[in-house]
Amino acid sequence: MKYLVLDEWRDLNGDGATDLVILSNGRVKVFHGGPEGIDLTRPKQLVKVRGNVFFAETARIDDDPWPDLVLVRVEDLGLVRLAFSLVASWSLDFEFLVFKGTGEGTFGKRVFREKTVTVKGDRLLGVIAEKKEEVSERRKAIVRLCDLDGDGVATDVVLLEATGRLRSWQGVVDDPEVVDALAEKFLRETLSGEETLDLDISMLGEWVLGRTSALLALTHGRLPDSDRVLPGGWSAPHAMAVRDLDSDGRDELLALRLVGEGEDARLEGFRIIFD
After folding, report:
1. How far apart are CA 79 and CA 166, in angstroms?
2. Vertex 207 angle, CA 71 and 55, to 5°
3. Which of 34, 35, 100, 148 has the largest CB neighbor count within 10 A?
């Protein structure tokens, strides 16, 4: 999970500007937005968490108006336990760690709330065989809500696949707030009690991929309004941001991918404008 990258875009301090939270290499970096966009020169906060952190989400877990930071960490599997789980039923503990939003665009330094979720399943060989292709494709795909037609509402969907294929559908989302609330609702319910929560692997997978799955389901059976292929190589670590970069009322896309290795590694970007 060392190279896992997740990005969260949200107004963290109520100033009307979108801020950026990035999970990368087991660390969370917080960057603030302003009139000229995101200031990437130096993070406003760096959150370090030990262990295998594989998920980050900003959500209102308590009753105040400020988004909190939720990190999900999975326990390490020893070789003996991993080998056994391939052929027999297994269980795995996930820790949900909440850092309280301060209202100033940062999060508390100490864990505000935590909970252990035990995930149970049949032998991993069966799970891998059944879900490998589906999970692999969804993991590599990036789906975003956006406003491509300039109507002021983010009801359009864009999908960037690992092949570089980029498709868009306009007006497919009736209520963007319902889609955005999926993860937050799950997290609030998960963290509401004190007891350890038991889930099966399918339920956890649907939650982790839930927003992606929901958005893709809305496009099922509909021809895309736009279908193009970017230069290849998107199976490498990549990201996509949706923003109105030129202030014309319509969103543009900024697709970034990692090119090269080691000291030669660099980011390569594409700005996509929809006419």
Report:
1. 39
2. 25
3. 148
Q: What is the sign of the dihedral through the CA atoms of 129, 204, 19 and 49? A: negative
How confident is residue 173, by pLDDT bands cut at 50, 70 and 90?
Answer: confident
pLDDT of residue 260 exceeding 80, the answer is no
Note if the pTM is more than 0.70. no
Q: What is the mean pLDDT of the chain?
A: 75
Q: What percent of the chain is modeled with pLDDT above 70?
A: 68
Q: What's residue 131's pLDDT?
A: 45
pLDDT (0 to 100) of residue 237: 64
Largest CA distance in the chain: 58
The tally of CA atoms less than 13 A away on the side-chain side of residue 28 is: 31
What mean pLDDT comes out for the span 26-34?
A: 87
> What does the DSSP assignment read for the chain?
-TT-EEEEEE-SSSSSSPEEEEEETTEEEEE-EETTEE--SS-SEEEE--SEEEEEEEE--SSSSSPEEEEEEE----HHHHHHHHHS-EEEEEEEEEE-B-SSS-B-SS-SEEEEEEEEES-HHHHHHHHHHHHHHHHH-EEEEE-SSSSSS--EEEEE-TTSEEEEESS--S-HHHHHHHHHHHHHHHTSSSSPEEEEHHHHHHHHTHHHHHHHHHHTT---SEEEEPPS-TTSSEEEEEE-TTSSSS-EEEEEEEES-GGG-EEEEEEE---
